[in-house]
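Re: beginner question about structure tokens

> Can someone show what the tokenized structure looks like for a real chain? I only ever see the sequence side.

Sure, here's an example I had lying around. Input first:
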Amino acid sequence: MNSIVLMGEIATKPEVRQTQEGSARASFLLRFPSHRANDPDYQVQVLLFGTAANEINGQYGVGAQVIVEGRLQMNSVTRPDGNREKRAELIARRVHALTMEPPTSTPVPLPAAVAAVPVPPRAVPSPAAVPAPPKAIPPRRTSPPPVEDDEIPF
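And the corresponding structure tokens:
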């Protein structure tokens, strides 16, 4: 079974096109950090089809943090210098948002009757009324005691 889940940041604006059959096809680059400080970030091409392709364009933009579920596919591409190279593409089934876009509407103010209700101050207990924290229990030893060299039977 070919299944992968990647978490990253959308690096390019999702581009939506129509296939010859008339269904939508969207593509974008997903970027995620490399494990080494000197290496550049990893990038993988993500493809979406159908209604998911139409939804990605309106919901997500560059910089959105997402989780992408799908399958990997390897393609052979001829570079301008004539050499062929293999590139991975992620054929996505689902895209989940990790970061929410800021709200576009202004917050609704509270009615004057609710805003005018006084809130009583919270009572702070005296230090004498606060119970002492329980004593820490030392951790149990889970490994066997160390074996000395003299006890080895060979």
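Each token stands for a local structural state, so reading them left to right follows the chain. The two ends are 50 Å apart (CA to CA).
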